Amino acid sequence: MREHSRCCRNRIIACWPAARTSGSILDMGRWLTKSASLCANLGAILCAGFAIVLLTANGTAASEAGSACGSAALGKARVVAIPDSRTVGLDDGRLVKLAGIEWTVSPDTAKATLSELMLDQPISLKGTATPDRYGRIHAFPSVSGSETPVQYALLERGMAVMGGRPGDKACVDALLGRERAARAARLGLWNSGERQHSADAPNMVLRDRGQFAIVSGRVLSVRESGRLIYVNFGRRWSEDFTVTIAKRNEPTFTQGGLAPKSLSGRDVRVRGFVEERSGPWIEATRPEQFEVSAK
C-alpha cells in the first residue's frame, strides 16, 4: 500500500518497470486497477489515466507506436522544465514542442499534465531537427523505457486531438486511431462536447474563435473565387461555416487523395483554428484536416 501511494505521489511511470516484472498481462491489469483506486483516493486522477496507456509499451503495440511518428531520431535527454503548455525544456538546452496534436484542455491543465508525465524524466525524441521560429524542435517524445510517444496518452484520454500537420500517413493513422478510441469511449472532450461543433450551428462554432476545434457537417458546395477554394456548408456564405483552401495548395490535397471538388455533398469532419470572416471559417492547408465519410 505504501509503495503504491508513493508511486502516485511521484510519477507512475517511474513505478511501471517494477509493476511489469511479473510478465503477466493479467498481473499488470490488476496492478493498474489497484493503482487507479489508490490514486483516486489520493486525488491523483492523471496517474491512473496515464498508467493505462503504458500497458501498450510491453507488447507489439509499442513497437508500432514507436515507428509510426517522427521522421528521425533526435537523441535522448532529460526534461528539466515545462515553460508553458506547449513546450518542454531539456537538460541539453533544447526546447521541444509536442508535434501532431492540439490540446483541448486549459493551458493550466495542459502544463500540469506535462509536468506530471515528463518533468525530471529521461526521454527519447523522434521528429524534425530544424527548429521553428520560436527555437523549438517539433518532436514525439517517449519517456525512457517506453517506445510510446507521450502524444498517444493524451489522445487516448481525450485531452488532445490530432493537429492539422501531423506527419505522414502512418503517423496520421496512428494518431487518429487513438483519437477515435477516446471518441468511442466518450473520454475527455468527447464526453464534454468541448471543441466540437455542428456546421449547422455557426454561432456555436464562433464560441471557439481563435481555438483549435473540430466541425462536422455536410458540404453544400465547393466553389472557386480568385486565389481561394471555398468549401461551403450553408447557403448564406456571409454567415454560415466555411472552409477555405488556397488554390496554391490544391495539388497537396489532390496528391493526398482528396480533390477539393470531391467534397461537395459529402459528410465531413474538419479540424483547424476557428476564425471569423463574416461567419465562422477554418483555413485548411493539408488533406489530413478532413475526415470524409464513405459515399
Say what the CATH topology of the largest domain is. OB fold (Dihydrolipoamide Acetyltransferase, E2P)
> Roughly what fraction of the amino acids lie in strands?
25-35%
Low-confidence spans: pLDDT under 50, at least 5 residues?
1-66
Distance between the termini: 54 Å
Tell me the total number of β-strands.
15
Average pLDDT number: 80
Query: Largest beta sheet, briefly?
Result: 8 strands, mixed
* Corresponding CATH architecture of the largest domain: Beta Barrel
Number of helices: 11
Classification by helices and strands:
alpha+beta
Written as H for each helix and E for each strand, in order along the chain, the element string is: HHHHHEEEEHEEHEHHEHEEEEHEEE
What's the level 1 CATH class of the largest domain? Answer: Mainly Beta
Radius of gyration: 21 Å
Shape: globular
Domains, number? 3
Helix content: 25-40%
